[in-house]
Every structure is written in structure tokens, then in C-alpha cells.
Amino acid sequence: MGKTMQKHLFAAIALFSLAVPALADTAAPAPPPRPNARGGKFPMQGGQAIYEGVCQGCHMPGAVGAVGAGAYPALASNSKLEVAGYPVGVIMNGQKAMPALGPYFSDAQIADVVNYIRTHFGNTYTDKVTPAEIKMMR
Amino acid sequence: MTDQTPAPSRRSLLSMIGVVAGSAAMYHAMTELGYAEGSTFTGPIKLSQPPPGTSVLILGAGVAGMVAALELRDAGYKVQLLEYNGRPGGRNWSLYGGDTYTELGGFTQTVGFDPGQYINPGPWRLPYHHQGILHYVNRLGVALEPFTQVNFNAYVHSTDAFGGKPKRYREVQADMHGHVAELLAKSTRQGALNKAVTKQDREILLAALKNWGALNANYEYAKGLESSNRRGYEVDPGGGLNSVPVPSEPMAMSDLLKSSLWAAIGAGCNYEMQSSIFQPKGGMGMIGKAFGKELGPLIQYNSKVIDIHQDEKGVTATYIDSRTGGEKRTATADWCVCTIPASVLSQIPMNVGDPMKAAINQLPYQAALKVGLQMKRRFWEQDDKIYGGHTYTNQPNSIIGYPMWDYFSKGKGVLLGAYVFGEPAFIAAAKPPEERVKDAVEYGSKIHPQYKQEFETGVAVAWHRVPFTLGCAGAWTDAGRAEHYDNLCALDGRIILAGEHASRIPAWQEGAVTSALDAITRLHKRVMSA
């Protein structure tokens, strides 16, 4: 199989990886995040767009968190964000109910969103993480 | 046999299948080869009489918790259930017109569907081999009706193929099979497969390919009655005069390959998707309701567990009212079956050993989205002749599901407007519910332009915002399962876990049933050996 065709084939499989019902539709153990029409990556760029496009699904608008049978922690005024490595690690590797989102994000996206939450919602941690540092942590 | 190349080992074959077709196909192949099992249910369990007064506290009145409660009660145990919600069923749940659903963050939706219309935000199918859940469905007298997974007249759609115009499922499947069969037949006849197929088998293979791919007498997949008998005709045969069928033109192989539409035609091949499949009449939630009715006052609703503690004497759960908070109350029993999802349980203090704790803590829950859309009329039936089943698309809604009840009704109908996992489901969860509905209408209208005219009202459930689960189902990885699964399922002192997350049929109710039966069987053995 030529390289072009191979590339084509994988793109095609990726395209329909959601249409061929995955995850709950199969008895197979859930695979790691699968590629799809966008290659399995979140398309937003920039910290605010990523926060509002993805993170607030659980951490909520305004990063206020939520409480049900379990809870999503508020990121607003959260002293655990003081050391950048902590949110970076949680985003990349997950923690308890938080899924590992590393595979869905580029290094730059993780850096951007971590820098964003650490300087918004009442957090004032101005030291930045860089994509290069994210890469090293992968 | 001298003219055969060495057969690939089963393992390398499996990994090849896995690479090309994804884990669903691999699981299917594993099932075929005898590696994986659908369900371990072998019939109703019969537990012997426990010592008088032996009590079990069950946390969670979903399918797992209520199966455990039913069987333990029948055996003679003193049973009590605590349930976070104000209803039985957990993820076994249907939303009907007039229902109000408030997700995390306080976003409230009042379902505007007409009477008789509903959506199943969670499980929606009962495969015939899920004999465990089917046993309880029958025991509880829940009426079933057929569920159609594959509808050959529904659509397969890609925004990037054929100008964004959908193809019928039967056209894609017939053409894919036909073109592949023709290629293989050509190779066979040219001798290209001589090393792989014995001379004797070659003739059989050719006959099989002709049969499988609807090839003509020349082993070609071409426009004609053979191919049209699979893909459909340009003009169908009829009665009387002017009744001669007109064959349809198959898609060119190159166009079909480039379209990627072929990737959707495995939909009904997976073990879990194969006919026959059932659904409860009136919604999947009928099962939870029937369990709840059967267990009656044994279930204490609106109880949010905030602490689980065991000692040498028993297990105590501390809980508060899930709506109002208020004062702490306790429930105590000799033993505990805990079916609280790991995503929630990881946040509840519980004195179990490190192995179980680690197993609970490493299990996040999947992102998933379902959207229900009520349409003023059943245009998919009236205009497109689609009765049940699903359309597949490369858009972020992934699927359109057609209602599999009230066929030919002149009234309204509710479509499953989106059923999505992974990245698009995360994105949907971050939006307000009304935007998720709006998106689903937009995507659907690319396939059914009637959407814009006929849409009335919708409801969207993004599972990471569901207050009682924080996700749709346990997101096991292979590595996680290898390291933690046995520890999650093992009895820890007086506490044992159950649920779909403690099964190898994740996200399916059958996983919850078989997990509960296995857990209480082991628990009972422990009780009887004490």
C-alpha cells in the first residue's frame, strides 16, 4: 500500500470513527481518545476560547465549579493553581473524575489554557508555562 | 497444503484488524475467534437462605443496585437502598414531555415533547444476547418492541463527499461489497491468489464472491439487475403494464473509496448491533420504573451519600438530602453493595484498602451527548421512506436516529438528533443546552432539509453535566483494566462494588446486571462462610 493511499485510508477511518459507533456502542474497553473529523483534537485556539469551548463543560462558566452527587472543583480563586505544573498535570493525565485530555490538545493549547485560568477568575499567577515545557511533560 | 503461504497467527491477525478497523471491529473479530464473551448470564441465580436478620445496604438504585436488591431480598436478606435521585433507574432513564431536567451548573430544561414522545438520554438498546437484563425485563413485565439498528434505506452522509448529498445505506454497502468482490474475483481468476487459495477452493471462492458481491455472469459488479437487487433500482419493478425495472448506476469504486462512506457500513456487524435488538415500549426508563415499583419502600430517594465507613461490625453510610442538604443521617447494615459511579465514589470518603481506592480513582467517565428533537410531522417516513434505524454522518452529531415506534403515525415524532462521544461531546457539554439543540438541528438539516420547517422543540443531555454520574460510563483503558479491574471488583472487608464500571461490558445495562449478580454471589458466599 502506497504512502498516499495509506494516508487516505487512515483519514477515511478517522472521518467515521464516530459514525461507526465507538465506546458505549461496543463491549470493547474504551480506547484512548480516538481520531475523528478533526483528528481528535479540540479546534479552539487561545486560552479563553479553549476554556469556554471545553473546560467550562465541567468547571462551568466563570470557573465556579458545580456540585451534584459528586463535584467539579471551582478553578476561580483556587490556590492549587499556584504551581503551573499542577493544572498541567491534571489536564494531561487526568485525576479521578477528570479525564486525561492530553491527547486532545496540542502543547500550545495546554500552555494557553493553563496560562489563562491562572490569570483569570480571581487567580493572579502571572508566570507563564510554555509549549516547550508542556512537551517535556508529555 | 503446499500452495499456501503461512497463515497469520491469530494475534497478528487481530492486531491487523484493530489497526485498520478500530477496536469495535477488533472486538467483533475477538468474539468470532472465541476470545470475548457477550454476557456471562446463564439464568436466574438462586441464593440460599442467609442467617436471619443479615442486612445489606445498597448504594444506588440504578440497574445494578436494584438487581442486587431484588435478589438479596428474595433470598431473605434485610435490604435498604439509598438513591441520589428522586426516581429509580439511574442512567436507565427516559425524558418525557413535561419533565424537567436540571444539569450541573443549574441549566434547566423543561421537555416540550407531546404526550407519548420521549428520548432515552442513556441506554436505548437491548441486544438479544443480553439475557441478564432481558431476564429482569421479562420478570418485571416490561413490554418490548423491536429496535432497528441498520436501516438499508437510511442515509450515509459526508459533507466532503458527493457534494454533501447523502447516499442510501444499501447503495454504499452494495457498491462496496460489489467492487471488492469484483477485484477479488479478478485476482482469483488471474491467478494472483494461487498461493493463498487452493485450486479446489478457487472455484468455490468465485461462486461465493459472485453471491456476496452481486456480480454478474462475467464476475463484474456492474449496472444491472443483479446489482440493483442489492443497491435498489432507478425504477422499481411493478405490476401490470410499464412495470419493467430500470437498474441503477453503481457509484464508481474510486469515488466510493474517496468518499469514506464505506466506513459507516459496519454499523450492524458488531455483536451488540446485530438483530434482534429490543427496546421497552414507552422508553428505556420503563425498566427502572418497574424495578422501583417492585422494590417500593426499600428505596430511600433523594439521599446523597457523603461518607462510607466499615468496621468489624458493619457498614455505615452517612447521607444528606440531595435537594436541601440538611442534617446528616446514617444507614447501617452488615454488608454493603456500592453501585455509585467511580467518578462520584472517588470523591466520597470510604475506608477501603489502597488497591480498591486506586482502582476507583483511576476511572474517569466518558463524554457523551444525546439530543432529542421533536418534529411536527414524520417527514423521514412520509418523504424519505425511512422507518426506524439510523443515518450516519461525519458531522459532529454523528447519528440521526429515527423513532422506532408509532410508524406511519400522522402525528409528530422525536428524532435522536445527535449521539456523540469524545471531542465533539466535550465541546457540546461546554455549551448551554439550547445551543446543543440548535447545532443538532443545523447538522440534521444538511441531510433532511425538512428539519428547518418541521422542528419544534428539543432537549440535550451532555453526560459530563449529569449530576448523578459526571459522565456516561467508566472510561477504562486497557492498561487501567489490566492493573485495576480485579481490585475494583474484589470484596473489600464488608464492601463490594457493582455496576457497568465493574464489568467487561462497559456502558451496557448487561454489564450492570452481570456485575451485580457476580458481586452478590461472592458476597453471599462470604456471608455463608462466616
Features:
heterodimer; A: 138 residues; mainly alpha; Cytochrome Bc1 Complex, Chain D, domain 2; two-stranded antiparallel sheet; 5 helices; B: 530 residues; alpha/beta; FAD/NAD(P)-binding domain; Polyamine Oxidase, Chain A, domain 2; 4 domains; 5-stranded parallel beta sheet; 16 helices; 34% helix; disordered N terminus
How would you describe what is shown here?
The complex is a heterodimer of chains A (138) and B (530). Chain A has 138 residues and is an all-alpha fold. Chain A folds into two domains: 1-40, no CATH class; 44-137, Cytochrome Bc1 Complex, Chain D, domain 2, CATH 1.10.760.10. Chain A has helices at residues 3-15, 47-59, 85-93, 107-117, 131-137; strands at 66-67, 71-72. In chain A, helix 2 packs across helix 4 (107-117) and helix 4 (107-117) packs across helix 5. Chain B is an alpha/beta fold. Chain B starts with 9 loop residues before the first helix and ends with a helix. In chain B, the strands form seven sheets. Chain B has a five-stranded parallel β-sheet, covered by helices on one side. Chain B contains 16 helices and 22 strands. Chains A and B meet through helix 1, helix 2, strand 1 and strand 2 of A and helix 1, strand 20 and helix 12 of B.
